[in-house]
Amino acid sequence: MERMLYDFLKKPILPFFLLVLLLSLAHDASPKTLEPTPSTRHHFVLVHGSCHGGWSWYKLVRLLRSSGHEVTALDLAASGVDPRQASSLKSISDYFEPLTELMMSLNSSQRVVLVGHSLGGLAISQAMERFPRKISVAVFVTAPMPGPSLNVSILNNESLRRSGPVLDSRYTYDNGPNNPPTTFIFGPIHLATRVYQLSPIEDWTLAATLMRPLRLFSDKDMSREIALSEERYGTVSKVFIQSEGDRLTPNDLVEWMLERNPPNEVLKIKGSDHMVMMSRPLELCSHLLNVSRKYS
């Protein structure tokens, strides 16, 4: 034992201390993440798409919060863990109610970065009309973006006309087979091939497990409840984020929509599917942070 201790003490220990010193210098030289000050800290409100819930933003919630920002990823009515059933919703405004309640709870000095994915674009559009002074910027992530000169029912019908096959997705006809469908839910094959085709398989598995039926509303109801004006909706800055690999919202539909309702800015993400927050979360987070700074 004494011989082993003697041999150890004979070995040069300078390299060890040199290694510690180098590691310390490398740590000190590494870039620091600056915590936002109160004036640069933003509140992101994330609104999910059809059949999904606030859970679909789990990657973005972590990234944005780790950057020092406040994040709310809410469940719209009859979505996520919201206890209501789709059949109980009588109007699209009922579906938007959780977002409306959140916006009403903000005081007059609070302004949020409002982010809508997919069908969530309709929810944030109504919020822009009702609460324009409480929104610093609205971000449409591969989402329908109606406007004062683009009626929501026209946009919806154009989207349906250009959409591909629904595959194993299902409609229900609670008012009889001769009347319009009342709910819709994505099937796992539809999700895998047209919605999550570039996302990790774990995210597709999660989605297939957590899907909930979407209540479908009439064109008349949507046109009445999402009536948008230049005087209110038009005063809010809006940014559109386009996913170049989106099979659910094809690029030709996006271009058609943007021509009729141009946003302040269009950003593009390559290598992403419809679920941009799943397939390219870092790129989406970077865009959201840049947008929040630019339009604050």
UniProtKB/TrEMBL annotation:
This is Salicylic acid-binding protein 2-like. The keyword Secreted does not apply. One of its GO terms (biological process) is jasmonic acid metabolic process. The lineage of its organism: Eukaryota, Viridiplantae, Streptophyta, Embryophyta, Tracheophyta. GO terms for molecular function: methyl indole-3-acetate esterase activity; methyl jasmonate esterase activity; methyl salicylate esterase activity. Residues 44-284 form the AB hydrolase-1 domain. The keyword RNA-binding does not apply. Residues 1-31 form the signal peptide.
